[in-house]
Amino acid sequence: MSGPWEAPEPEPSEPPSPRRRLLLWVVALLAILGGVRLLYAAFPGAISTPQDWAWVGWGVLMMGLFSTSLLSRNIRWGQSARHAGIWAAIVAVLLLGVTYRHELAGVGQRVRMQVSSSYPVALSPHELVVTQGDDGGFLVMGEVNGQRVRFLVDTGASDVVLSPADAKRIGIDTATLTFDRPSETANGVGYGAAHKVDSLSVGDIAFADMPVMVNQAPMSSSLLGMTFLRRLESFQIKGDKLYLTSKD
């Protein structure tokens, strides 16, 4: 026997008929397709490749499969509505990710540049920008023969100069080099050895068969000198930014 303060148990509701459940499922599918159509109209041209359409198709298929819960005999409408909202959000995030994939990649580059100023950021396929370091110099991360090398951009250096440590790390046998090229340094006359690397790149700017000098004495950083900079269309400093532009 229930007490006077206990609420009466609700009467069980009549489950919807199979025809009504099927109608609700069709309406849900149409709503999903309508949402995709609205997003496509809002971002024209964002979905253009077969891979883009594959992602969209996967999302629609998953939502369609989960919407089959509308065909079950006992439907928990609150739970079903929450699930539908979650999947609608997932599809929307996927579509936005496809739409702004290039912008999101640029965001990652910019964040990395702020954390470490030596990483260049691509402004266009042929233009890079490097942020000035705390010491006033421009350090830039490049690759020599596929290995990462951090360079100090030095317009006063006529050559690209590799430190002995960087040269060994990228596979140059410094014991076989002849250090017969004198150069003036802050510590007096230094000697280097002429060498040619298969590739040298900074960001998307890459050159093959690049002549370099391997320094005999230890260096705090390799130098990106004029043999690289002269191959560019232009390089200029604006404020605390260094802009590198390639010819093609």
Automatic annotation (TrEMBL):
- Domain of life according to the entry: Bacteria
For this protein, the record's InterPro entries field holds: Aspartic_peptidase_AS (IPR001969), Clan_AA_Asp_peptidase_C (IPR011969), Peptidase_A2_cat (IPR001995), Peptidase_aspartic_dom_sf (IPR021109), Retropepsin-like_bacterial (IPR034122)
Q: Which named protein is this?
A: TIGR02281 family clan AA aspartic protease
PROSITE patterns, from UniProt? Answer: ASP_PROT_RETROV (PS50175), ASP_PROTEASE (PS00141)
Q: Which Pfam families match?
A: gag-asp_proteas (PF13975)
Group of enzyme by EC = hydrolase
* Keywords noted in UniProt: Hydrolase, Membrane, Protease, Transmembrane, Transmembrane helix
Q: Which organism is it from?
A: Phenylobacterium glaciei
Which one GO biological process term can you cite for this protein? proteolysis
| Segments forming domain Peptidase A2 | 149-190
Say yes or no: keyword Secreted present: no
